[in-house]
Specification:
Helix content is 66%, strand content 3%. It is mainly α and 438 residues long. It has 15 helices and three strands. Helix 7 packs antiparallel against helix 8, helix 7 runs antiparallel to helix 9 and helix 10 runs antiparallel to helix 14. It has a three-stranded antiparallel sheet. Strand 2 and strand 3 form a beta hairpin.
């Protein structure tokens, strides 16, 4: 099977070479590669193959030579089996020299040419190859890798090719005829020719530039390497340009982000400033309102105090006589409205009568100045409020309410004062009774 494996491997490399020669997959920038046919045409069989061995008459060999021949036969038994379609020059059992060899009829000239052509086409232009070809153009790197792969494989195949060349010159140890039959010889020679053609092509692609004869022309591999270097430089430039562009983009994004952050900060500061200004304005307005309120309260308080002072100034006389004077003022003011006078006097009598009966009851001694009933019956008339002032009532504010209040002296600490206070209430009540009778 060794010949079959070598044939398949060489055919595989021939296909790779044909792919490299195709317009869509070959070398770039004007570099041309010789086709297999061109490489085959440069080969000379005399330089490749040894002279074919001549057949010799059978001779009786001694025992030592027979044993060596038998050993050689045993070692190369595999090669005979793979060439089943070739003529066999010895029988399957070659243990003894007396066996009668059996051979196939020799190929006619036309048969030999047809067989040789079929084998040759398998290397040059096999049928159905277009189906497996790819249309995409290979890069210089891919071409270089394929050439290096072919070169490495050819180096590995060299021992086997040399072995086949050696056996072409050998004879069968038993029959003393050539080792290979006609078809096997054709197959071996075509495999070797294809190998040598590839070897010639690879040698040209990898030619040594240190030699003077090759100094004027660059090799394909050298050009590919230059192209790869140029592509790498271009890629590096593109990569650098891309990195520069990305850096510019990153800087732009960072600047935009910084600008947005600064703008946001400015907006926030402006908003804070507006809030502070608004708060200051509200505070200013609130302070102004508070100031106005205080001024108004002060004015109101001053007006109230002035009104109270005016009210007190209308009562120059206190006690029973003062009460009588104020009732007289009321009578003069209501001389046209006897009913209102009677209501006022009646209300005054009821007020002082309650206090006289229960002087300890504070609610009887406290009259709200804004009480509707008080103002309706007494306070709205001239002398009405003055009667209370003359009777000893004071203008006070109790629990935030402005009142007429008759303060009871402490009976335990000021018995005389309390007595005078209470006597004054009784006299006021007597004066009111007298005025009601008139």
């Amino acid at each position: 099977m060794e010949l079959r494996r070598v044939e398949d491997e060489v055919k595989s490399h021939c296909k790779s070479w044909r792919d490299l020669c195709r317009p869509s997959g070959g070398a770039c920038n004007g570099d041309s590669m010789p086709t297999l046919k061109e490489l085959f045409s440069k080969l000379n069989d005399e330089d490749i193959f040894p002279p074919e061995p001549e057949e010799e008459p059978e001779e009786v060999e001694d025992d030592t030579q027979m044993k060596e021949d038998e050993k050689m036969v045993e070692e190369e038994k595999t090669d005979k089996e793979e060439c089943l379609d070739s003529d066999k020059n010895s029988t399957e059992n070659s243990a003894t020299a007396n066996s009668v060899p059996v051979s196939k009829p020799a190929l006619s000239a036309s048969e030999s040419i047809a067989f040789s052509d079929s084998i040759f086409i398998g290397y040059i232009d096999p049928e159905g190859e277009e189906e497996g070809m790819t249309d995409h153009e290979m890069t210089p790197q891919q071409i270089l890798e394929r050439l290096e792969n072919i070169k490495a494989s050819l180096t590995a195949l060299a021992p086997k090719i040399n072995k086949f060349l050696k056996r072409l010159a050998e004879k069968d140890p038993i029959t003393r005829k050539p080792r290979y039959g006609e078809k096997a010889v054709i197959r071996v020679k075509h495999a070797v020719r294809a190998y040598k053609a590839l070897e010639l092509g690879i040698s040209g692609a990898f030619q040594d530039h240190t030699k003077p004869e090759s100094a004027e022309q660059s090799s394909l591999v050298s050009n590919l390497q230059k192209q790869i270097q140029m592509q790498e430089e271009q890629m590096n430039e593109q990569r650098q340009a891309k990195q520069t562009q990305e850096q510019i983009e990153l800087e732009r994004i960072a600047n935009e982000k910084l600008f947005a952050e600064n703008r946001e900060t400015e907006q926030r500061l402006l908003e804070d400033q507006r809030k502070r200004e608004a708060e200051l304005e509200l505070s200013r307005r609130a302070e102004e309102a508070r100031r106005r309120r205080i001024e108004e309260e002060q004015l109101a308080l001053a007006a109230e105090r002035e009104a109270d002072a005016n009210l007190l100034s209308l009562v120059p006389t206190k006690g029973a006589e003062g009460v009588r004077e104020q009732i007289e003022r009321m009578r003069q003011a209501l001389k046209e409205d006897r009913a209102a006078l009677d209501v006022a006097l009646g209300s005054l009598y009821t007020l002082f009568d309650q206090i006289s009966r229960k002087p300890e009851e504070v609610s009887f001694r406290r009259v709200r100045r804004d009480h509707p009933k008080f103002n309706e019956d007494i306070g709205r008339h001239v002398g009405g409020k003055e009667v209370l002032i003359a009777a000893g009532f004071r203008l006070e504010t109790l629990d935030g309410i402005k009142c007429f209040f008759s303060r009871e002296p402490n009976i335990e600490h000021d018995m005389n004062g309390w007595s005078d206070w209470f006597d004054g209430l009784k006299k006021t009540l007597e004066v009111i009774e007298e005025e009601m009778i008139k």
